[in-house]
Automatic annotation (TrEMBL):
Organism this protein belongs to: Pelagerythrobacter marensis
Protein name stated in the entry: DUF1203 domain-containing protein
InterPro entries tied to this protein: DUF1203
């Protein structure tokens, strides 16, 4: 089973980097500078921000079906992330080296199955979930903090 993981479209966040504090707060967002320690995983580039890099911390609805499984949480976006990353049958840096929760959803947006990848075993966990034909897509979340990391989609190629 081939899968694809794409970063979010940066256009939906670009204007927030120019907003003043009050306007930014109204969008449930904050501007930050990535410190020397810690992880600030960008949902556009799907890699961690470098120390000293400008990032946006913002609330983002990653799962928006008309079901009880609707989900929104805080995510980071690097200011200089101008192209959404794309990975086919491989993992982006934000899904490596940290515990990841995988939520497999049916086509109607209901949670069907889930898995937890505690080591660097995200790829086999994704493939096991996608072996179930009722799973239409998977949302990956950081297991410890709960924030959305990336969407995994079945991929047939171009």
């Amino acid at each position: 089973m081939t899968y694809r993981i794409r970063g979010l479209d940066p256009a939906q966040f670009a204007d927030r980097f120019a907003m003043d504090g009050d306007a930014l707060a109204a969008t449930l967002s904050q501007r930050l500078t990535a410190p020397d320690e810690g992880y600030y995983p960008c949902r556009v580039s799907l890699k961690d921000a470098a120390p000293g890099e400008d990032v946006l911390l913002t609330n983002f609805t990653n799962h928006d079906p008309a079901t009880p499984y609707r989900n929104a949480f805080a995510i980071y976006v690097r200011k200089n992330a101008d192209e959404p990353a794309e990975f086919v049958d491989s993992l982006p840096p934000v899904l490596r080296g940290r515990p990841i929760a995988l939520r497999g959803y049916s086509a109607d947006g209901c949670l069907h199955r889930a898995a937890l990848a505690l080591a660097d075993d995200v790829d086999p966990a994704i493939r096991a979930l996608l072996d179930d034909p009722q799973i239409a897509y998977i949302d990956a979340h950081n297991a410890a903090y709960g924030c959305f990391a990336a969407r995994v989609e079945r991929y047939e190629g171009v």
